[in-house]
Amino acid sequence: MRVYLPCTLPVLARAVEAGQLGPAPLTGYAVTPALTEWYASGDTEELEYVALTEAARASLRMLADERADGADTAPRRVVVAAEVPEGSLTGGADLDEKARVRLAAPVPLAKVAAVHIDDQYAVADIEAAIAALPAADQGDDDARFTVDGAEAHELMWYATQEIPDLLH
User: How far is CA 38 from CA 17, 53, 101, 136, in A?
Assistant: First the structure.
């Protein structure tokens, strides 16, 4: 089953060093029964795009956490697409997002199918979205508009053999 894992460039670099994304448990996004039921008119490709978009939103929050911890690198949302056994994913009613799943084990890099990442042109809008997140979370419509503006940037697709180039 395809799962989309929110990530950042520093987290991806650590995963490459370790040979896996982890430690577990991991939060990911996938085409779940709840998502399929909610988005009944969508085909598989549309549903996977919804899961990818949810993972990109989670990546934005990871970037905000890194920024709060003092990171000063140009923020770019990163989503890792991996193939995992369907039985390794769990979802449930306690999860807010219909596509959100939990993985009980780390994901070996050998299971990674691709990496999706913001282009350099998106950095200014990602910076603005990170700055607006606290106000957006408090219900500020203008801040929410700024955060949503990050989604106007489509994530670029990279093959697994391109990961080392992304980290330099």
Answer: 38, 16, 16, 25
